[in-house]
Write a structure and sequence with these properties.
With 504 residues, the protein is α/β, with parallel strands linked by helices. It is built from 18 helices and 18 strands. The chain folds into 4 domains: 119 residues, Response regulator (Rossmann fold, 3-Layer(aba) Sandwich), CATH 3.40.50.2300; 58 residues, Winged helix-like DNA-binding domain superfamily/Winged helix DNA-binding domain (Arc Repressor Mutant, subunit A, Orthogonal Bundle); 183 residues, HUPs (Rossmann fold, 3-Layer(aba) Sandwich), CATH 3.40.50; 102 residues, GMP Synthetase, Chain A, domain 3. The chain is 39% helix and 20% strand. β7 and β8 form a beta hairpin. α9 packs across α10, α10 packs across α15 and α12 runs antiparallel to α13.
Length: 504
């Protein structure tokens, strides 16, 4: 790509017109991209273009809606727009110009006239090279070429991550709230949220073609929504694999398998508890545990996928907080997510992540738009590595048993006291310490568990939940009385940040 060339986007549902405009504009030395629908245009990085030639009558989303979206976004508000349309009334023209368009050309038009107006608008609104480069220390971002470098070395990142980084660098010293970022990067809720199902189904069908897909189910909200979305797009060409890694909640494997069958998903259940316990034997480092669990999933999916015919894609329920926490620009990673970072070449599968750019609350909205029963949608988030990140130190079958039983008492207690839906996420952590206690007339030296309950919107920040004292006392007594091996219960009152929601 020649970075000196002006980049022009042509948006028109008439393919012939797109071809004619593209041919003539390229002959003038411009770099041209075409889009045959508003959805196709909005999927592009609009900030990379110097000018947009925009038809008005495009279908479900009109050209004027695209213009409105662009003018609301700080990063696209200054990009010039020329309407090229058959709507030739004076009122239509006035409306188009009032939206912020730089020119209005009616069809049928002369190509020479279009080229002359393009030159005029670009000359009037041209940006300098200095404006296209943002720097912060050794970090350099080129808005034109969409390249990010640190110490001269390119850092690869998805389009939305680049846009967020550019937004923050262009406004150094300003603190952005989450909603401000959403408004800037995903400015139109109608398109980004309410229509995300239709838009994503269309994109998934185009991306996957006639290929078969295998999806990694975890039992949580993210993978469930991803599965139903993909099932809507490609139907029986999706095969889901749900792995019992021995780190699920009590009786969760059988319950979730029944639930997925009711949702109409094609699901294969795999009992791999022994495989995971063996691989985790002696492993105590948190990051090492996550990587072992992640590798275990990949190995199992590789094995099971080879039993299926014509599998070309692996689908995952990765969401945006997973990506952010796994991203290492400064050289420091918060924590590894087994569903982030790509796949080993030996799997020979391509990766599809339909929820990768969504936050948790947006995933729930997509799930409701898909008519997934609320018992799935309102379910608390559950970490990909399962209880493995809630057992500090080495993982054993006995420790899992203790944690499952304690966790079940806590979660069921929240439901019984109508507290479950008032908490964003809750669970129990098994600590790597023992404490002295008294059971009956005997001295005990048993395990300590920590109760954890937080409230959040998107998982990026969280505050600890002040549960009623009488409820905490009841749960504590029940755990100590009913769970063999526990004689002390504590309550975690840490918020994120500086703590994370999970302990590992």
């Amino acid at each position: 790509m020649n970075s000196d060339k002006k980049r022009i986007l042509v948006v028109d549902d008439e393919e012939t017109l797109c071809e004619v405009l593209s041919f003539n504009l390229e002959n003038e030395g411009y770099e041209v991209t075409t889009a045959l629908s508003a959805e196709e245009a909005l999927a592009l990085d609009l900030t990379s273009f110097d000018l947009i030639l925009l038809d008005i009558m495009l279908g479900a989303i009109s050209g004027t809606q695209i213009a409105e979206i662009m003018k609301r976004r700080k990063d696209t508000a200054e990009i010039p727009i020329i309407f090229c349309t058959a709507k030739d009334s004076e009122d239509d023209m006035v409306k188009g110009l009032n939206l912020g368009a730089d020119d209005y050309i009616t069809k049928p038009y002369s190509i020479k006239n279009v080229l002359a107006r393009v030159r005029t608008v670009l000359r009037r609104s041209g940006r300098t090279a200095a404006q296209d480069v943002l720097k912060c220390g050794s970090l350099c971002v080129s808005l034109h070429s969409k390249i990010c470098t640190i110490d001269g070395k390119e850092v690869k990142m998805p389009k939305k991550e680049f846009e967020i980084l550019a937004l923050l660098m262009a406004n150094t010293g300003r603190v952005y709230g989450r909603q401000e970022i959403l408004n800037a990067i995903w400015p139109d809720k109608v398109i980004v949220v309410d229509r995300v199902v239709d838009v994503n189904v269309t994109r998934l069908r185009a991306k996957l073609g006639d290929d078969n897909v295998v999806l990694a189910l975890s039992g949580g909200v993210d993978s469930t929504v991803a599965a139903v979305l993909l099932n809507k797009a490609i139907g029986n060409r999706l095969t889901c694999i749900f792995v019992d890694n021995g780190l699920l909640r009590l009786n969760e494997f059988s319950q979730v398998m029944e639930d997925y069958t009711r949702l109409g998903l094609n699901v294969i259940g795999v009992d791999a508890k022994d495989d995971f316990y063996q691989a985790l034997s002696g492993v105590t480092d948190p990051e090492r545990k996550r990587k072992v669990i992640g590798k275990g999933f990949i190995d199992i999916f590789d094995r099971e996928a080879h039993k299926l015919s014509n599998i070309k894609w692996l689908a995952q329920g990765t969401i945006y907080p997973d990506v952010i926490e796994s991203l290492s620009i400064t050289g420091m990673t918060i924590k590894s997510h087994h569903n982030v970072g790509g796949l080993p070449e030996k799997m020979n599968l391509k990766l599809v992540e339909p929820l990768r750019l969504l936050f948790k609350d947006e995933v729930r909205r997509v799930g409701r738009a898909l008519n997934i029963p609320d018992r799935f949608i309102s379910r608390h988030p559950f970490p990909g590595p399962g209880l493995g990140v809630r057992i500090l130190g080495e993982i054993t079958a006995e420790k899992v048993r203790i944690l499952q039983e304690a966790d079940n008492i806590f979660i069921q207690g929240l439901r019984d006291h109508d507290l479950y839906d008032k908490v964003w996420q809750a669970g129990v952590v098994l600590l790597p310490i023992r404490s002295v206690g008294v059971m009956g007339d005997e001295r005990t030296y048993e395990n300590v568990v920590a109760l954890r309950a937080v409230n959040s919107t998107d998982g990026m920040t969280a505050t600890w939940t002040p549960l009623p004292h009488d409820f905490l006392a009841e749960v504590s007594n029940a755990i100590i009385r009913r769970v063999r091996g526990v004689n002390r219960v504590v309550y975690d009152i840490s918020s994120k940040p500086p703590s994370t929601i999970e302990w590992e």
